Amino acid sequence: MTTVAAYAAPAAKAPLERTTIERRAVGEFDVLIDIKFAGICHSDIHQARDGWGEGIFPMVPGHEIAGIVTETGSGVTKFAVGDRVGVGCMVDSCRECDNCKAGLEQYCAQGNTGTYNAIDRSGAPTYGGYSTHIVVDENYTLRIPDGLSLDKAAPLLCAGITTYSPLKHWNAGPGKKVAVLGMGGLGHMGVKIAHALGAEVTVLSQSLRKQEDGLKLGADHYYATSDPKTFEDLRGTFDIILSTVSAPLDFGAYLSLLKTDGALVNVGAPEEPISVNLFSLIGGRKSLSGSGIGGIQETQDMLDFCAEHGLGAEIELIGASEVNEAYERVLNSDVRYRFVIDAATI
Q: Has this prediction a pTM greater than 0.90?
């Protein structure tokens, strides 16, 4: 066991504070990672504040991790000391179920092991990336290509894969019209990736405040959802609507924007249940779907794709002592577009 510095929420809704945590000794198939950068995801806030159910405290959030391998276990074959690596939203799964065998570890039948706010298979709590070091099994560690800077790569480990996976699954590409709902940490990556895949991209945002950014990042069109005319003008337009919004929506209104056989895919997760009039689905053989992160190989594919196309997150680098202020700013949509903690400040 090694003692390392971290920022943790000592209890639900409590401000995060500097502390120390224990990391396990490096096992046969583990790598020790010197964390350089950790992104702040909206889901960190949901979990630190018990928004998605009862959390495990003290909680060290962070599942957008980029760093350097500093030690490897004796059985490690995929990584060497000095390698640039990342860790996303999970650090283990059962490895035996049909989903795990199919490269869909995120949908492990026994439940994957979250990078934080989870209990690992030895019975110990997991702690995330708001810390100086982490020990991870090599099979749940990703290689960050040289073409990506570590600070801009960190958010790809959640925001990147969470948007890449559904866009690939629902065949976003040339000839497809994709709408990205919400222009935040996930949404801005959805725009970049959908554009790089060759789709015609529209941003649907509450206002036109970020229109210039959206067009610069690859959107072809930009509409304000606060304008009722948007829903008239765009009726029956889209093959895919990717919703990155974590607030309740009028799903009937958004489903009306889909073509026949279109899909409204949710990657944002509101804390409250939603209601849907099923006639809004039946009327055009439409789908209301969800998607969660991606498997390990798909996450590696996403990193390679982003490196190939020069896609990194738009970030605001902060010191660890600014994390509580950053949480409030995320809730006020006051970040363009992802806060990233410089782990050297922890």
A: yes
